[in-house]
Structures are given as structure tokens and as C-alpha cells.
Amino acid sequence: MTIRRILETLAQHDYRLTWQRWAVAAGVVLNQDRLLTAEELYSLLKKDYPDIGLATVYRTLDLLVELGLVDRVQVGDGPTKYGLRNTNVEIRQHLVCESCGDVAPLDSKELEPLCKHLAHASGYQISEVEIRVTGICPRCKAAASAPAGPSRGEENGGRERTARPGDRRQQAGASS
Ligand SMILES: [Zn+2]
Question: What is the pTM of this model?
Fold first, then answer.
């Protein structure tokens, strides 16, 4: 992603090229190998553009996120950071069954910011992030536990009939 691409995208969406937008775009491009909080970018920009305001930096970053030019990344309870979107980075997440070899896509919205954070933090020019989670798929799990099924079911059923914890929980949930 280049500054030219950002300027072209702004123009395509009829956004005027103000000096503030130019400054934020340039700041993000110049720091594209890392993630910055809005405050960090603001202090960097302040040196060259003393008149820029923090609210403007926030607003402009939000606009660039909306236009798909910048990623907003938050890992856990950490601060919200921004980084130039590298459209060449492919994030692949798979679930792999150790038993039958089945491969399923893992659509975790939580992993995506982490991948982006790691990509920026590594100093590498990342082309691909691959997350491979291995385990036993639901089908294999069901097949493995099937023979023991009936006796276990009876045990659970018997216990539930005396204690009825499920019923009480359901009633509480329905009344709230
Ligand atoms: Zn399996």
C-alpha cells in the first residue's frame, strides 16, 4: 500500500484531500512496519504538523479504516492500534482433525488482530500467517464415544432426575 493508493481511494470516495488527511496518511505509510496508537501517531505528526489535533487524527484513522486502507488492531485488553493494511498478507486459519485428517476453516475474529499484531511486531515483511489448530473433529469424537454412550446416558439421566440443576437454571434464565 502506497501513499498514492490512499490518495486515490480518498478521491474515489469524494473525500477532499485536506492537509490533515495527507499528514495522517503519510504518517501511517512512513510507519507501516509497526502498529501505533492514535496518540503515538499524533505525537509523531505534531513535530511536522504542529497544528494537527488529536481528534482529527482519530477521525482520519477511522476514515482510513472504513475505506479498508488501515487496520484497527486490538489484542486482549491492550490499546487500540492502527497500521497500514498490507493487502499481500494472507491470514489462514484451519482446524485439522488428528484422527481423520479433516480440514475445516477456523473463522475466529479474535485471532485476526493477533496475527496482524504479530505481523507488524516481527519486523518481517509478512506474506502469510497460518494458524493450524489440531484436535479431534466432532464426528470422530462422536464415533469414539458411541460405544460407551448408553451406560453414560443412564448415569447422567439418573443424577439429573434427583438434583434437577438444569431445570432451575432454565427457570432463572427465562424469568430474567
Ligand atoms: Zn475427524
Answer: 0.62
Third-level CATH fold of 3-84? Arc Repressor Mutant, subunit A (1.10.10)
Please tell me the distance between residue 133's alpha carbon and the centre of ligand 1 in angstroms.
Answer: 13
Q: What is the CATH number of domain 90-140?
A: 3.30.1490.190
Instruction: Give the Å distance between the CA of 96 and the centre of ligand 1.
Output: 8
The percent helix, strand, coil of the chain (3-state, each to 5) is 50, 15, 30
Find the 130 Cα to ligand 1 centroid distance in Å: 20
Q: What are the tens digits of pLDDT across the range 119-138?
A: 777 777 777 878 889 999 99
85, 126 contact by CB (below 8 A): no
